[in-house]
Amino acid sequence: MADAPETLTDLKIAVRAADGKGATAPVALNVAGLFGYADTFLIVSGSVERNVQAISDGIERDLNEAGVRTVRREGRESGRWVLLDFGDILVHVFHEEEREFYQLERLWHDAPIIDVSSMIETAAS
């Protein structure tokens, strides 16, 4: 279940790691009732290939350090669309152009959106 405490904790780690590496437009979808392999998709964008790679590396490092094992990683070398599989969470790190082209949010429009805005640390004023 996508709102299970451990899934939300892992999602928060991933969102913060992505934000820390300059990811933009984070969207999390609860796909538990629509997709048999994971409960949550996290979709983020990077501006250039190196940024996409840095974002995916940061997410993977932080989740691994928290004890979440990477099941599979695809696409890191190209830096255009990196897929990170952590079991309950699938992370899609897109180059901005690929994200616009594939429009996963539109494809999965039936999936409820998980609000991640509160998961991103804001700088103290």
From TrEMBL:
Functions as a ribosomal silencing factor. Interacts with ribosomal protein uL14 (rplN), blocking formation of intersubunit bridge B8. Prevents association of the 30S and 50S ribosomal subunits and the formation of functional ribosomes, thus repressing translation. Its main location: cytoplasm. Keywords: Cytoplasm, Repressor, Translation regulation. This is Ribosomal silencing factor RsfS. PANTHER family: IOJAP SUPERFAMILY ORTHOLOG (PTHR21043), MITOCHONDRIAL ASSEMBLY OF RIBOSOMAL LARGE SUBUNIT PROTEIN 1 (PTHR21043:SF0). Pfam families: RsfS (PF02410). GO terms for molecular function: ribosomal large subunit binding. The gene is rsfS. Interacts with ribosomal protein uL14 (rplN). GO terms for cellular component: cytoplasm. It is found in: Cytoplasm. Belongs to the Iojap/RsfS family.
